[in-house]
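Morning!

As promised:
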Amino acid sequence: MCNDDHDHKHCLEMFEKLSEYIDGELDHATCEKIEKHAENCVACFSCLETLKRTVALCKNVTEKPIPLKLSQKLKEIIRNIPKTTTL
Amino acid sequence: MTTVKNPNHGKVKDKDFGLIQAINSGQVDKFNELVKRYEQKLYNFSLRMCHDHSDAEDMVQDTFLNVFKYLKDFRYETKFKNWLYKVAASTCIKKKRKSKFAPERELSLDEFRPGDEAAAAEQVPEWALMPLDKLLNEELSSVIHQAILSIPRKYRMVIVLRDIEGFSTAETAQILNLSPANVKVRLHRARLYLRDKLKGYFKNVQ
């Protein structure tokens, strides 16, 4: 455990790479290093899990339907664009 | 005479190329179909980029007008969706420049580094462990929406494109004219910012 000294070199190194780790953008050796560190450091493990959860929540937000009024307005605007000035 | 670029010459495959080619060949009425395919996505992207509903609606309109204006220049070298978001991001940035808001602050990694004291006490909180479907509800969705809106815009654009719209690092870099390294830096800071907001929310509800 490294809880009594979180400003440890490995903690800081890991902290900077967490997003790349979550996104699978790191090489195998760096991933192993991070996993090994997270196994033994509660604070870094927590940091990783809360960040993972933040990303997962973003990926699962729902879409709002487009207001019918706006959709109709778009149709209207497109209908009224002078077609000879483009394409 | 307008030369219609041929989508078959490029290596990129995209379900929209046929429709774009038809529009650029003179079937301008088909532009409506293109709008229909993307209006909802673009509306949601705009809602996350603008603080105000009416600004978001303006952004959708302006983006489609720009797409209509420049579609003839589309080169079939990238998916249409990526090009559309490039137009949308650029429309949003131009709109922001015209407004009178103060420049947005930079996010530094230092402000998110856990201090010794906080880190020592930190266990994995419940909200990071419970099943996602049990966690997500209307209230949390609204909290996430507001938290995203509070991220300084240049970081917000990156997190929205990467984590909500699902673009890759390379695609996001292309859309925003940034280097992939810069995208990664902004994304990490935006996520840490959002995580802090969520931590604050869950601390208050528990």
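DSSP finds ten helices and no strands in chain B.

Hope this helps with the figure draft.
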